[in-house]
Amino acid sequence: MPKLVLTALLIAQALAYYGLSRPEPVPLAKPLDQFPTEIGAWHMVRPLAMDAETANVLRADDYLLRDYSDARAEAVNLFVAFFKSQRAGQTPHSPKNCLPASGWVWTDSNTLRVTVAGRAEPIEINRYVVSKGEEKAVVLYWYQSRDRVVANEFKAAKFVAWDALRYNRTDTALVRVVAPVADGRADSATAAGVDFIQDFFATLRAFFPA
Q1: Average of per-residue pLDDT across 99-126
Q2: Domain ranges of the chain
Q3: Confidence (pTM)
């Protein structure tokens, strides 16, 4: 734990010392509300919106929140939060913290390697199984800055500091997919979430800055 605290402190110092004095104009490549309503085998069921209180806490520069489904009646929820800069305290909120605050309890966790189009190596993402009362869901998420996909929060923070030093940029996005678990079949929900990610990953990349 002391090492993690020290790491976070060093990252904060690097951002403050090297970054705050320089402007960081990083526009979103395309607004997230232009993300396709039909993607692969999936179609949008409904767009959703965060309540004002949640939006004020998140402080994302742009976000996408939608429910999708496919011909098999598999259902998933997609959430993307984009941050142009993290220098003023605007940072992604880890689902590990946000969902428990909403009453969800973590019951299982691991990482997955997912093969996606356009990349020679699989991406590594987080997988959590959560429950609230009788409800259960699989949560898949990662942090993405341009072509870099990172599962670990502390590793993502290190890259932020490095990007600030090298490129005068700290833009990033949190990408999260939630698939409800039916009849206790967490593996089926995971498979549906992974299938959805494989269908949208290459398309979503075009919405982030180069």
Answers
A1: 91
A2: 2-205
A3: 0.86
